[in-house]
Amino acid sequence: MEYNEATQAACWVILPNLGGLAGLYIIKTRHDDVIRRCQLVRHFPGSTGQVVLWMAFNSAMGYAAYLVFRSGGGLEGPARPPLAVFAAGLGYNWAWPPFFYAKQKFAMAMVDMNMLCGTVALLAYLYFPINERAAKIMLPCMAWTLAMATFNCRVWRWSRRRPSE
Residue 134 sits in which domain range? Predict the structure, then answer.
C-alpha cells in the first residue's frame, strides 16, 4: 500500500504525541498536585500550557524526523542512524512524565531530561548534513528541553530540602 507524502508526514508528526497522550493518562491528576506542592506555578506554564508546549515539541521532532526520512532515503539510506537516535529520544521523552509526575522520582526524571537534551542536540547535529531545515527545527526543541531540564533541576533541589512526608 502506497501512502502519499501528506499521510507519511502526518504519521511522523502524530507518532511522538502518542507517547505524550499515554503519559497524560498515566499521570492523570498528579501533574497539578506536583506543581502546586513545588510552589513553582508562577515560574512555569500551568497544565494546559505544558500540554500545548509538549505537543508542539513532539510535533516538531516528528516533522523534523520525517524530513530526514524523506531526504535521507528512508531507513535504508544515510537517515538510518539519525532516525535510530530519534527513536531513543522518543523513549526518553515518553519516560519523563511517569518519572516526574506519577512516581515523583525527581532525580531520575532529571537524568532522563538531561539525556533528552543531549539527544535533541545530537539530532540537530546529525540532521544537518541530511536536511538543514530539519536541523533548524530542532533548535526550538533544544530550548524547550533546556527549559524543562532547568525546571526539573529546581524541583529536584526543592525536593531534597523539604522535610519527609
Answer: 5-161
